[in-house]
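[Automated response] Your request has been received and processed.

Submitted sequence:
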Amino acid sequence: MKDLIALRQQLNGLNTIEKLKYLAEAYKDRIVFSTSFGWEDQVVTHLIFANQIPIKVFTLETGRLFPETYYVWNRTLEIYQQPIHAYFPQSDLLQNMVNAKGPSSFYESVENRKECCFIRKIEPLKRALAGNEIWITGIRAEQSANREHMEDLEWDEANQLIKFHPIFDWTLAEVKDFVKENNIVYNTLHDKGFPSIGCAPCTRAVREGEDFRAGRWWWEDQSKKECGLHAAS
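Generated structure:
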């Protein structure tokens, strides 16, 4: 495991942009940011692109995204004129799953849903992270119970690298204010009750009083709301 204590000390006292710049310099060409074009990710994308910080930005193109997500993706490219690298599922794995179980097998069992998540998200993520040492995310502490036990800088055992969450301590109100103040393009599904936006067949709006991630895989046990991308180590 990397010496997180030393790295935390080096980042101590720096603001968010300074932390990103420090990591980009210290881990040159070995640092990436993953975006799914939600509120939080758009904030981090803005911090990186607007400040010309040399961090590679990538996304997972699952093939099942909302039209609104593709709109945000395209507008982000137009606004910042910076590349966002797409990682797709391996065609043979996807083809075999759909041919064997149909296009909506994820509704039938947790095992099938996890298989779909693995093919469309986890395996492409492994390829996107390969060779890197720092993974930047848009995770915030208040997003789910699991994430409240995480830290802004942590070791990812599954992927063998360091994860840094630059807006980890931000509230949703702070995220919204930053988006508004900086005129950042965002997914309009957020205005329609979608706090967390993933694949279209697996995401619905949440009702008042429901948990943040209640709209993800709502047909399953409510105690498990992670696809595996950010499961606790």
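Summary generated for your ticket: The chain has one domain: 4-202. Residues 110-129 form the longest helix (20 residues).
If you did not submit this request, please reply to this message.
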